[in-house]
Amino acid sequence: MRDKSYIWISFIVLIFGIWAVPKIVKKFEKADLEIIGPAPSFILTNQNNKEISKDNYKDKVYVVEFFFANCPTICPIMNQNMLKLQDAFYGRLNFGIASITIDPTNDTVEALKEHADELGVKIPHWNMLTGDANYIYDLAAKFNLYTGVNPEAPGGFEHSGLFALIDKDGNIRCRKDEFGNPILYYDGTDDAQIVWLKEDIKLLLEE
Questions:
Q1: To which H or E segment does residue 17 belong?
Q2: Reduced to 3 states, what is the DSSP secondary structure of residue 129?
Q3: pLDDT at 29 over 80
Q4: Diameter of the chain by CA atoms?
Q5: Which 8-state DSSP code applies to residue 188?
Q6: CA distance 33 to 176
Q7: pTM for the complete prediction?
Q8: Among 86, 104, 172, 179, which is least packed by CB within 10 angstroms?
């Protein structure tokens, strides 16, 4: 009876191993998302007057946007979509958001703190960042995300409204379109692309 019990236990262990190993391996596979290249490094100040750099997002999946608090056009839509991401990944300490102002003269630490509170920022790694204007515009150019001063534009500034997705290794990642071309960035004002972004964040969190 002891020998039969041993054989039965061994069989169960073997079956469990065959079932579990692919799942473990899959968890550490790279997601089928394009690697665009390393995200630019930065050092800026957040709404809590704390210096934040790319290192603060090490081993985290995060989304980068360029915005300004008094934007009367696309930023309110972008804000609501960032809140959707916050809700979707609430409690995941390896997820974050970097919202970088393009109007640092008005978006001081105090102003960004008020904006974050009004918006309902709750996750610990959602940083609203400010700093030197030239530094920020140079950073946006390194991301290849359009920003600019335009006195004739609503609010006095222009920006693309695109979100950059960064993986745990600090690389910009994205999905491909139906033709197999990388989309590069996600439209922060498009509901369908926010759904894509949620799906792709989940994939990167599981890498």
A1: helix 2-27
A2: strand
A3: no
A4: 87
A5: T
A6: 7
A7: 0.85
A8: 179
